[in-house]
TrEMBL record:
One of its GO terms (molecular function) is guanyl-nucleotide exchange factor activity. Signal peptide: none annotated. Residues 920-942 are annotated as: Disordered. It comes from Hemiselmis tepida. PROSITE patterns: RCC1_2, RCC1_3. This is Tyrosine-protein kinase ephrin type A/B receptor-like domain-containing protein. RCC repeats lie at residues 119-168, 169-226, 227-281. GO terms for cellular component: cytoplasm. It holds the Pfam family Ephrin_rec_like. InterPro entries: Growth_fac_rcpt_cys_sf (IPR009030), Ran_GTPase-activating (IPR051553), RCC1/BLIP-II (IPR009091), Reg_chr_condens (IPR000408), Tyr-kin_ephrin_A/B_rcpt-like (IPR011641).
């Protein structure tokens, strides 16, 4: 390998010792972009200048020397003698690029392309086939802006064609289209020049955006969005990865064809006669493998029309490349280069011109199908250390390889020799001194920390804000200056000592604008009765009870032994008073002191509340300060405490531990364990303490527990035996007048008493009683009771009563089951049937009458009335007659006369047939006239009339109205 040095330690370095950012390699020349200390980019070119490909006029004295017999037109190109050899890089000055800096360079066969920072594209060199994208104006024309009308993002250069990817996604192509390598149909299959850039239709890639381009010898490859890969152009060796035109010398694949559809394509590189493709499934190669450039020993020396698998993570863990996946690909005419993510470089294919950096078979035609690693020290000079250098990039040309090797720059926190910040001749990087830092690799100097920051140690990669309470007033401080004592700051990163703020001193406070939770000046003194113990107080605390203070106090003064204050916040000695003694309590622990109740105490003087002894402990007496074991339940001892406790005496109890024995009150008695007094049960009583509970005597009650006497039964109640808890009410028909009755007396006939009554009551008229009862029942039908206190009811002399409870003989009536009926749908003025049936309940003597009242009704001429007996035949007991029967003078009654004296209780039916019956008056029945009635003048019957309730309805109707009457009983 030849060292193209540009390191500061190599005084013979070229390219002005600037950092090489990119390299482009053609067949016989190369170009590079470097970056100087100021960040300015510069373009360089070196090698053959036979066609002006270095941006200078073409070298003179060229002689006919066939070096490329595979040119599109079959004409041998010429190589210049002597003068075209240019080993020293010549700068392509910005003046040749419209005053702009170069951003990218690309090289084809005798052509160079430069993209500027603004996206302008310049081209120069060989233009026989229009591969410069413009008309040629002579050999060695200076660089010319193509003026494609849009910013250029990338360029790919083949032998005789070029692809241009614009920032708006447009893909342009120009130059030879002999094999369809331009991706358009114009001149496809001919050697004609295409000097004007042609736009490749987006439809050729399924409408997907073009993301990257690569140009081989005479074929093209495009990587589109969604990781789709398309290939077009020359396919003699299968370099497109499709069978179309495979091994066809004149075949042209001018329509882009998609390849590798089964996986996502990540990167692609196109060589002279082969193509490498990195996908999500692994690394593949297609095309010529004559020197092993596809890394496939099986097809050694042959070409392949479809993609050949090389290696992957899944198959071997990328064993062919040292276990690291590929990161970048480069291809020459007949060799390949793979850079891995681990920084390794692997080469395979032709080493005829030493392009694999392998001295063992350089210059031979050997087949090198197994990737060989080339280390950085195999490329560098003597004394190389793999830790000092790394491979930064590789570019493959026709039969050569350029590798960018960088010496590892000084790491962050260190600095080296300008301008690249790499170790000096001694190989050592200097650490950034305290107060300075370095954030990037390759710094030639360190940066001072800004105000308010510091870096305490050497080799710092950043500066730290000064902590609260410190500051840095100058740049580059190794440590921050601390604030004076008893001060604070609002925050970190102070750059000014005036940010140190004094805290309020003891006894002072600041309640506005606190800093970090502390009070700072200006401060106010604490008021009397309060204090601030520490500096920086935001508020003062009230002096605790038993202390006092004046204004501005840092602490409070105590009142003294056995003295205290009534409350916190006292302002002077005069607020101190004597405390309640031990065993006493009082308001505020000082006022109205009183002894603690038995079973509680105070642990010292000055308590406002007593503390319970707890557990089975108690005190001997109120105000005692000593808690002792209490006597158990039902026991007694001196002061109710041990150790000499004995059971309570007869009739005494002790219900609490440590209590004294007490007598049970009247109405109660001690429990068996003498721990509680139990009340006498209901029905018993105890008139005095110490005697057993006794049963209440007959005629008394004790309804509640704990009775001391029994109460007499009230009127209406009784108690027949002893031990009654509640007197029972007298049953129905029985009474008691009170005074402790032991039994109830029964009510005599004609009187009644509901249960629990104190006296019997007299039955009212219409009711009776024959013995003890809760109420007097009403007289049954056909009877009556005219006087109060009846013991029985009198029978009706004739007839019956209409309801129960009759109180007078006049309530006995002589007709039953009276019924009247009319023709259905009778109309006013039309004849209607009238049926009346009844049963007389009295004796009707011959000649006596039953009168049927029919007010305002009439019979038409020839009308008749029929009387029927109970058997439906003509009645023999009665006959009927009537008067005033003319149409103009309506009759108002029918008389039924008894024929003999045996007519009592005979059923009678009165029938007026419809054919000669009653006509209803057109004006209807007046509201103020009665309906049908029954009456009699029999001596044995009642004198009052009996109305028939279902007689003609009251109301009015016109001649068209219809009247429908229903029958009913009385």
């Amino acid at each position: 390998a030849l060292l193209f040095a540009n390191d500061v330690a190599n005084k013979g370095g070229k390219l002005d010792n600037e950092v090489v950012k990119a390299v482009a390699v053609g067949s016989t020349h190369a170009a590079a972009v470097t970056e100087g200390p100021s960040g300015a980019l510069r373009a360089w070119a070196f090698g053959s200048n036979e066609k002006g490909e270095l941006g200078e006029p073409a070298s003179a004295g060229a002689q006919a020397l066939c070096v490329e017999p595979d040119s599109p037109d079959g004409v041998c190109s010429t190589a210049a003698a002597g003068a075209s050899f240019n080993p020293t890089p010549a700068e392509i000055a910005p003046a040749k690029l419209g005053g702009e800096e170069a951003a990218q360079v690309r090289a084809g066969r005798y052509t160079t392309y430069v993209v500027t920072g603004t996206g302008a594209l310049y081209s120069f060199g060989y233009n026989a086939y229009g591969q410069l994208g413009r008309p040629s104006q002579g050999a060695g024309d200076p660089p010319v802006d193509l003026g494609v009308g849009r910013a250029v993002r990338d360029v790919a250069a083949g032998w005789y064609h070029a692809l241009v990817l614009c920032t708006d996604g447009t893909l342009l192509s120009f130059g030879s289209n002999l094999y369809g390598q331009l991706g358009v149909g114009a001149n496809a299959g001919t050697a004609a020049a295409n000097q004007v850039p042609l736009a490749v239709p987006a439809s050729s890639f399924g409408g997907r955006a073009v993301q990257a381009v690569a140009a081989g010898g005479q074929h093209s490859v495009v990587l589109a969005s969604e990781s789709h890969l398309y290939a077009f152009g020359y396919n003699l060796k299968g370099q497109l990865g499709v069978v179309e035109q495979y091994e066809a010398f004149a075949g042209a694949v001018s329509v882009p064809a998609r390849v590798l559809v089964q996986s996502d394509v990540l990167a692609v590189a196109a060589g002279g006669w082969h193509t490498l493709v990195l996908t999500s499934a692994g690394l593949f190669g297609t095309g010529s493998n004559i020197y092993g450039q596809l890394a496939d020993p099986i097809i050694a020396g042959n070409s392949k029309s479809s993609l050949s698998f090389i290696d992957s993570e899944a198959s071997s863990g990328w064993a062919l490349f040292g276990g690291s996946p590929p990161a970048a690909l480069a291809t020459g005419d007949q060799h390949s280069v793979v850079l891995t993510e681990a920084g390794g470089m692997w080469v395979f294919g032709s080493n005829r011109y030493g392009q694999l950096a392998r001295p063992d078979n350089a210059g031979s035609w050997d087949f090198n199908a197994v990737p060989l690693q080339v280390t950085v020290c195999e490329l560098e000079a003597v004394g190389c250390s793999a830790t000092d250098y790394r491979i930064a990039g590789a570019t493959a040309g026709g039969s050569n390889t350029f590798v960018r090797v960088e010496r590892n720059p000084c790491p962050p926190g260190f600095f080296g020799v300008p301008p690249f910040g790499r170790p000096g001749p001694d190989g050592v990087c200097a650490p950034c001194p305290p107060g300075q830092f370095g954030t990037e690799w390759g710094q030639s100097s360190c940066t001072k920390c800004a105000l308010g920051k510091h870096a305490t140690g050497p080799n710092a990669t950043s500066c730290t804000d000064c902590a609260r309470g410190t500051y840095a007033e100058v740049r580059g401080q190794g440590k921050c200056t601390p604030c004076p004592g008893n001060t604070t700051m609002r925050g970190n990163g102070s750059s000014d000592g005036t940010d140190c703020l004094s805290l309020c001193r003891e006894g002072y406070y600041a309640d506005t604008d606190p800093v970090n939770g502390l009070g700072v000046e200006p401060c106010l003194p604490c008021s009397a009765g309060s204090f601030a113990l520490l500096r920086g107080a935001l508020a003062c605390e009230a002096c605790p009870k038993g202390t006092y203070s004046g204004s501005g106090a840092g602490s409070c003064s105590p009142c003294g032994q056995n003295r205290s204050t009534r409350a916190a916040g006292s302002v002077g000695q005069e607020d101190c008073v004597d405390m309640c003694r031990e065993g006493e309590f009082g308001a505020f622990g000082v006022d109205d002191c009183a002894p603690c109740e038995r079973g509680s105490y105070t642990p010292g003087p000055g308590f406002s509340l007593c503390v319970p002894c707890g557990g089975n402990l108690t005190t001997r007496f109120p105000g005692d300060t000593l808690c002792l074991p209490a006597c158990g339940l039902g026991e007694v001892g001196m002061f109710g405490v041990g150790p000499d406790c004995v059971p309570c005496g007869e009739g005494e109890v002790a219900g609490q531990e440590g209590s004294l024995c007490q007598n049970c009150s009247a109405g109660s008695f001690p429990s068996s364990d003498r721990t509680e007094c139990l009340p006498c049960i209901p029905g018993t009583y105890q008139p005095a303490p110490g005697v057993p509970c006794a049963e209440c005597p007959a005629g008394t009650e004790a309804p509640f527990p704990g009775a001391t006497a029994c109460a007499e039964c009230l009127a209406g109640t009784y108690a027949s035996g002893e031990g009654t808890d509640a007197c029972a009410p007298c049953p129905d028909g029985f009474v008691s007048s009170g005074g402790g009755a032991t039994a109830c007396g029964d009510c005599p006939p004609g009187r009644y008493a509901p249960g629990g009554s104190s006296a019997c009551r007299e039955c009212i008229p219409g009711t009776f009683s024959a013995g003890p009862t809760a109420e007097c029942p009403p007289c049954p039908l056909s009877t009556y009771a005219p006087l109060p206190g009846a013991t029985s009811c009198q029978d009706c002399p004739l007839g019956t009563t209409l309801a129960l409870g009759a109180a007078h003989v006049s309530q006995c009536v002589g007709f039953l089951s009276a019924y009247v009926g009319w023709s259905e749908g009778a109309q006013a003025g039309a004849a209607t049937r009238v049926d009346l049936s009844f049963s007389p309940q009295m004796v009707i003597l011959p000649g006596e009458h039953i009168v049927v009242g029919l007010p305002l009704f009439f019979l038409p001429a020839g009308g008749r009335v029929e009387l029927l007996g109970g058997d439906g035949a003509a009645s023999t007991a009665f006959e009927a007659y009537f008067a005033n029967a003319s149409l103009d003078t309506p009759f108002n009654h029918i008389r039924i006369v008894a024929r003999d004296g045996n007519a009592a209780q005979a059923s009678v039916s009165l029938s007026v047939p419809a054919a000669a019956g009653v006509r209803l008056p057109a004006q209807g029945t007046p509201r103020d006239n009665p309906g049908l009635t029954l009456s009699t003048d029999a001596r044995s019957g009642p004198v009052n009339e009996l109305p028939i309730n279902n007689s003609a309805p009251v109301g009015s109707f016109d001649g068209t109205a219809r009247l429908s009457l229903s029958g009913g009983g009385l």
